[in-house]
Amino acid sequence: MHATTARPALAAPATGRRLKLLIASGSVLLGVAYLMLTAFQTTTVYYLTVGELLDRGAAAHGQQVRVAGDVVRGTVEREDAGLGVRFLVHDGSGQVPVYYRGGPVPDIFGDEVQVVVEGKYTAEGTFVANTLLAKCPSKFEADGTAEA
Amino acid sequence: MADFGHIAIVAAFVVACYAAIVGPLSAHLRAPDLLQSARNGVYAVALLLTLASATLMAAFVTHDFSIKYVAEHSSRDMPASLVAAAFYSGQQGSLLYWAWTLSLFSAIVMLQNRRTARDFMGYLIGTLMVVAGFFGLILGFVASPFEKTLIVPAEGLGLNPLLYDSGMLYHPPMLLAGYMSWTIPFAFAVAALASRRLDAEWIRATRRYALVAWAILGVGNLLGAWWAYRVLGWGGYWGWDPVENSAFMPFLVGTAFIHSIMIQERRGMLKVWNMALVMVAFYLCIFGTFVVRSGVISSVHSFAQSSIGPYFLVFLSAAVIGSLALLWYRLPYLRSDNQLDSMLSREASFLMNNLLFVGLVFAIFWGTIFPLVSEAVQGTKITVGPPFFNQVAGPIMIGLLVLMGIAPLMPWRKASPDALLRSFVVPLGAALVTATGLLLFAPNGATAIASLTACAFVTATIAQEFWRGSVARGQATGEALPRAFGSLVRRNNRRYGGYVVHLGVVLMAAAITASSMYQLERTARLRPGEALEIGGYRLTYNGLRERQEPGVRVVEAQLAVQSGNQLLGAVTPDKRFHRNFERQPSTQVAIRTTPFEDLYVVLAGWDPDGSASFIVFVNPLVVWLWAGGVIALLGTFVAMWPAPRPRAVTAPAPSPAFAVGRA
């Protein structure tokens, strides 16, 4: 939508000026494209369901991925006065143990809360998360900020 | 009460539809009576939606739990201010707020443009009322805030504890109003195209409304960052969440517009481009409202999957297709009056600024919808997180900063390289000194150094502009320097107001750079009496304390803060357990602010033995992010201040066909 409208109504009489303008605008846009491409190459992560993560098995070990699911009721264990937390996360297709430590645990985190964890699946079968996001239970709609 | 509110909304919908048809019809038939009728329709919609909003507000204040929306979003023991804020805490209420403020703004626009050409007004009313009618449709028939409960509960559910914060009073209404207010410039653009009145007048009127919309949306964004910083406890204020991005994108497009519109005012260039920018800003505002509400992009802001998503998608598509088609048919009327004379000109540097802004928006847009696209194309969902946005946005924003220093010093049409070089001696010197200082004393990566150097460069150009302008005026008029400075700003308020905005932005950029690149973080579990050290501070934990407030149990940790041997005071981060939400505490961050840095202490948890765990950050310069925002807002006021009236002799004769009222 932006690309189609990004054609300013400019026409210079002298081809030299026109060329300069094209080169300048082109290099700005190429620069932006280059930034996007390199960033895409280094920062994309797969967004998987629990089932998809388990299906990948060993192939997923050591790879940064993002997994969404619900916290299994009664499985939340805190350690070190709340600095670390262990829990099981499940969706329709399976469940996986998660360990998260070092960052803030969102206030709304708890039993049966929908979470998104980002981190690495280890050979021991535990998902070691370095990011833990929790979503509000669906009965609460809100438009305030709520990331963890 | 519920019926009354519902009827008011349905009536507003009907009247909006009427005005949406009659307005353009009056332009087509050249019928002043019809136009007056459409105008009255706009006032009636404002009145009806005010009644509906007042009804909902009254239901909240009187705890009328027979209305489902009230029962689900408030309770009797909530503070009065939050009961009022619960109005817009859910989907239906926030859409009603959107529609209501739009109807008020539309009515104000009617009052301010009483002498504007009739055909223009007809199409303007048509556009405004189509948007209002769409919201009326949703509120009346799809997501009514006045739906009744089957069994009236004795007590409401209450507000989610996450929203128990003064941020709730300011951020949502400001942001929603920001989204809404871009409808006005959009309607002016459509009306100008439809009525073929594409002269300088519509630009003058649109610029003013666009500045207002831009300021509201900007403040809404910044208040969101401020709220997130104070309550979320991860030490930051911006997470590149899809909903944040959606609010940021129209702001960026709007920023591009308020710059490129100057090129059109002054040189009659970029006419199509400006139209496109206004339109895209409006689309992005609708897109943003849709993203918050639809759950289509996985975000921590998106809650229930909701039924209104498809309606928004259809409306947005119709708006995009309709307005772009109109633009296409009017292209012959939008020929450029002038051509670019030189790459060394203000026009060219503004053009680069616009390309960077639009490039940035494009990158953010792709990053935001990438999971959707990858799922549709490849069948696997791939996401990008904050690292992507930081990597892309960082260099672009530094580029924008540099242009912010260069562009205002560029003359229109063509610069002479010599004069240009003279203008940049002092700023380049300031940049050099800053870069050297940073390399020697705080070498924290190329990005940080480049960004702070650019900040120094821009600050120097702004200071130099004020200084040169004041001296020149003092010499010309014989005024003393302070007085010359005052009259300089008063007489050129748009220009110097703009510089003040730039100064605010520089402060914000410096704060963002410093707080993200020079942040310190430590986590620790402490027994009472133990201490942790971070960035020259020593925090000694003195145990937990529990106290009861109405409806809330508060557990707070007491920490003494020392720097060296000097006791600076105490901080008490806490967790609050709201009745009905015992398992969802709300964490209150303790922040100790100085001009240099924020000490940011989060109570992460505790054990029965009295030991507690903390996450502590030292965030440099954060206070300047908020201060910069305030300065930018003040600058916007200066720029919007009506210019001193030109003397009658020199005043241009008002265009008889199109006289913008007292906008």
Name the strands of the widest sheet of chain A in spatial order.
Answer: 2-4-5-7-6
Characterize the quaternary organization of these chains. heterodimer
Largest interface: A-B, 67 and 102 residues
Distance between the termini of chain B: 38 Å
The ordered string of helix (H) and strand (E) elements of chain B is HHHHHHHHHHHHHEHHHHHEEEEEEEEEEH
H/I helix tally of chain B: 19
Beta strand count of chain B: 11
Largest sheet of chain A: 5 strands, mixed, barrel
Proportion of helical residues of chain B: 55-70%
Q: What does this protein structure show overall?
A:
The complex is a heterodimer of chains A (148) and B (663). Chain A is an alpha+beta fold and 148 residues long. Chain A folds into 2 domains: 10-43; 46-134, Nucleic acid-binding proteins (OB fold (Dihydrolipoamide Acetyltransferase, E2P), Beta Barrel), CATH 2.40.50.140. Chain A is built from 3 helices and 7 strands; from the N terminus they run ααβαββββββ. Chain A has helices at residues 2-5, 15-43, 50-56, and strands at 44-49, 64-71, 77-79, 84-91, 94-101, 114-121, 127-134. Chain A has a 5-stranded mixed β-barrel. The radius of gyration of chain A is 23 Å and the shape is elongated. The two termini of chain A are 32 Å apart. Mean pLDDT of chain A is 79; it is low at 1-12 and 137-148. Chain B is an alpha+beta fold and 663 residues long. Chain B folds into 4 domains: 1-164, no CATH class; 166-334 and 347-369, no CATH class; 386-518, no CATH class; 520-620, Tick-borne Encephalitis virus Glycoprotein, domain 1, CATH 2.60.98. In chain B, strands 3, 4, 5, 6, 7 and 8 form a 6-stranded antiparallel β-sheet that branches. Chain B is globular, with a radius of gyration of 27 Å. The model of chain B is unreliable at 648-663 (pLDDT under 50). Classes of the chains: A alpha+beta (148), B alpha+beta (663). Chains A and B meet through helix 1, helix 2, strand 1 and strand 7 of A and helix 7, helix 9, helix 11, helix 13 and strand 1 of B.
